[in-house]
Amino acid sequence: MAYSKMEYPDAILKQKMKEWGITKNEDKALDNIPVHYNQFLAQNYLQNYLRAIRIGQRIIPEHKEIENLKRRVSELEKRVGAKRIPSKVDDIYALFKDNLEKECFGKIVAIDTDSKEVVGIGDSILEAYDCAKSKTGKTQFDFRRVGYKYVHEV
Amino acid sequence: MRKDYSYNKEKGKHTPLLEVLVGTKESRKPVTALVDTGCAPCMSLCKSYIVENGLTLMQKMNIEPIPLGVADGHTINADSYKAICEINGEQKEIEVDVIDPERFFVEEGSKVGSVIPLLGRGVLDEYDVLFEGKSKKLSFYHPE
After folding, report:
1. Options 3.30.420.40, 2.40.70.10, 3.40.50.12280, 1.10.10.1100; CATH of B2-141
2. Which of A74, A119, B18, B65 could join B77 via S-S bond, C-beta 3.0 to 4.6 A?
3. Nearest CB to A125; choose among B36, B80, B99
4. In this model, does residue A3 exceed pLDDT 60?
């Protein structure tokens, strides 16, 4: 956590200066006291620092925090914006995509990459697999969910 | 079937975990899985869990890895296997998705270590499931 430079309104500033012992003479007209702003900031920072130490907070310099935020944004961009390089199955799926999305959006299709055909459709992988197996006699297929970039969500 | 939530001492939390038997027709091993309505497949496991626990599954159904969408936006790879799942003495054929963090999609990178097995909607949809959050109990009923 970084502590930003903050400016108190005049009234509060004067009050705070009194509390922290920067201005000791209460009778003196406060308006005439020069505000040693650097001194005030240093004291403010020190107080915050000591408070953070007391409650066990980690003190992260401002630039570290910005770096951290930049890293998180780039991770998010990578995660959300990343596009998978199409595989052989994706290419075959693309051939049937339009028809499939019209007829069975959301279903799972079993694709035979050798014959380049959709050989089974079902609500689950198991259903599509059983359908494809009975149709082709093969034991392994590839699967895609119609209209989605992933087959299941976990 | 009505079970108590499991209590995790380290986290100080009650979680709806259910022990089911998973494996082949001949041999099955107990798997403690989190009952997760946000998980679409019947069951999902990490590959490391299978290796560590010596779990045997049946036929692998896919050739290319199956893309799975994770709630945080990542897409991860999995292989889908047939397996037999036994819940309260009742056997069912289910699909088990085995997540392999080492075979991640190059475009994204791998950050998945190991997660607790998840019992998903593929199985839950066969029952009427009740999460009794207040009394920390989990109930599975057969729909009439």
Report:
1. 2.40.70.10
2. B65
3. B80
4. no
